Amino acid sequence: MLKIAVLVSGSGSNLQAIIDNIESGYLNCSIEAVISDKKGVYGIERAKSKDIKTYILDRKQLGSGISGEILRILDGKVDLIVLAGFLSILQGELLQVFKDKIINIHPSLIPSFCGGGMYGIKVHEKAIEYGVKVSGCSVHFVDEGTDSGPIIIQKVVDVCSTDSAKDLQLRVLEQEHIALPEAIKLISEEAIKIEGRKVLAIGKVE
Ligand code: GAR
């Protein structure tokens, strides 16, 4: 069974989607830890209500030391780290020890509306301001850059002319709750491999 840690900074609806998919039997994995970089976030309450071990690492206090703390907590304990709305940037040894074993969900079709400073509602504000006709979400492996690692899954949603950023955010979030469990399942079943920038299905011609 795949052991995972889920890292959150907010409401944790993506964490909830993972929990629900484990409970339904879709995902064969266990959540060994939930880590937040902020006190008082609802994601931590969701984890506690399921008796999952939680850790709060204050990013204001720790600064760039947060990656080292995460490594100290998770080294040797989990197979995969899932960034589910986690807003601190990971760096250093953590990325080497967990090479190709960290995934992130981003609320746009990468490489649009991503990178430094692009998170949460801001992503959707920029998409609407730009006038795109479709947006969506991307699950990707984490590398040294921001939102730059190989893409595992993308889901597309229509953007309507009347959409507010909040409307678009909600429509994209529904797809995030499908995409993130799907990506975890592919990894847990060893169904994908990374070749350069590409994530390929193992044993299938694409
Ligand atoms: C999600 O929309 C996620 O894609 C986004 O934060 C939200 C967290 O929601 N992540 C980023 O913007 C990362 N760049 P949640 O706490 O309800 O899962």
List the helices and strands and how they pair.
Blueprint: E1 2-8, H1 13-23, E2 29-36, H2 42-48, E3 54-56, H3 59-62, H4 66-74, E4 80-83, H5 93-97, E5 102-106, H6 121-130, E6 134-141, E7 151-158, H7 165-188, E8 192-195, E9 198-201
Parallel strand pairs: 1-2, 1-4, 2-3, 4-5
Antiparallel strand pairs: 5-6, 6-7, 8-9
Helix pairs in contact: 1-7, 6-7
The chain binds glycinamide ribonucleotide.
Q: Could you please say which CATH topology of the largest domain applies here? A: Rossmann fold
Distance between the termini: 28 Å
| CATH architecture call of the largest domain | 3-Layer(aba) Sandwich
The strands making up the biggest β-sheet line up spatially as 3-2-1-4-5-6-7
- Tell me the series of helices and strands, N- to C-terminal: EHEHEHHEHEHEEHEE
Brief sketch in words of this structure:
With 206 residues, the chain is α/β, with parallel strands linked by helices.
